[in-house]
Design brief:
By secondary structure, the protein is an all-alpha fold. It is about 95% helix and about 0% strand. The protein is built from one helix and no strands. The longest helix is centred in the middle third of the chain and has 70 residues. The model has no long low-confidence stretch (mean pLDDT about 95).
């Protein structure tokens, strides 16, 4: 009879381990998705910053041109 009790406890422990493993794998999947979204957001922001820097450089060139025009 005692062997059955130990076997039942062992099965319960293994069941909890399997549940925890499953939940941790699910959590890791969620983390991976968040990391991927963040990486995509960073790439998008970097591309936007490059466009803004180019626009700022063009604006500075235009300001210099207008300054030369007004001095003439």
């Amino acid at each position: 009879m005692a062997t059955n009790n130990f076997s039942a406890r062992r099965e319960q422990i293994l069941s909890m381990f399997n549940q925890a493993t499953s939940e941790l794998n699910g959590l890791n999947d969620d983390i991976d998705k968040t990391i991927e979204a963040n990486t995509n957001e960073i790439a998008s922001r970097q591309a936007q910053n490059k466009e803004l820097e180019a626009l700022r450089a063009n604006n500075n060139k235009t300001v210099k041109f207008f300054t030369k025009l007004l001095k003439a």
